[in-house]
Automatic annotation (TrEMBL):
Name of the protein described by the UniProt record: HEAT repeat domain-containing protein
Record Pfam families: HEAT_PBS
Organism of derivation: Streptomyces tanashiensis
């Protein structure tokens, strides 16, 4: 039987990392805002142990669906710490965009992620852009493509913008997607094919 929000929140304090992780995954799916404070406190404790990267990832992703914009200062500080794990950078980028979108400030959040130069963080941010199907103006799209196209086409960072571009417009977007069709990565080429047809495809981040 699936956990309800109350039981999932309780299990965030379980001694087992696997149970804490499954609780976070359940809360992420429920998107219950009442879980936000508990997730924030659980994540603050979890990041002290570098062995539990999967649990940290799921807690951060869950905070993105259950938290509030008041959690953004902590998340921004977390992803800037040298010791923060790569998985948390990905989830942090996703959560920062999701929570910022609640206040319609996702463009500023995307710009902030780009300004760090952190490819993993930017990848997470673009994952959220794609999954939320955010329609961005051409100025921020241009900033995103400047960042992406400065990297090798073989890098995975091309995937989420290729998905998100289904909701973007402009000649540069079409050119980007056309170039992605010949990507050495089949996942990027598939995403570009879908986006050129105006289809986001069906993807489910871990």
């Amino acid at each position: 039987m699936a956990l309800d929000a109350v039981e999932a929140i309780r299990r965030l304090q379980d001694r087992s990392s696997a149970k804490r992780r499954s609780a976070a995954k359940r809360l992420r799916k429920l998107g219950d805002s009442s879980a936000g404070p508990a997730l924030l406190e659980a994540l603050k404790n979890e990041v002290r142990d570098s062995r539990t990267w999967e649990t940290q990832y799921q807690m951060t992703m869950a905070l993105g669906t259950c938290g509030s914009p008041s959690d953004l200062p902590y998340l921004r500080d977390l992803v800037l710490r040298r010791e923060t794990l790569h998985a948390v950078h990905t989830a942090g980028g996703d959560a920062i965009v999701r929570l910022s979108s609640m206040e319609h400030s996702h463009t500023e959040a995307i710009r902030w992620c780009l300004s760090t130069g952190d490819e993993i963080l930017v990848g997470g941010a673009l994952q959220a852009v794609a999954m939320l199907r955010l329609a961005l103006d051409q100025e921020i799209v241009s900033d995103i493509l400047d960042f992406i196209e400065a990297r090798s086409p073989q890098e995975g960072i091309y995937f989420w913008p290729a998905v998100a571009a289904a909701g973007w417009t402009g000649q540069r977007v079409r050119q980007f997607l056309t170039e992605c069709l010949s990507s050495p990565r089949s996942d990027v080429a598939e995403a570009a094919t879908n986006s050129l047809a105006g289809n986001y495809g069906t993807y489910r981040p871990l």
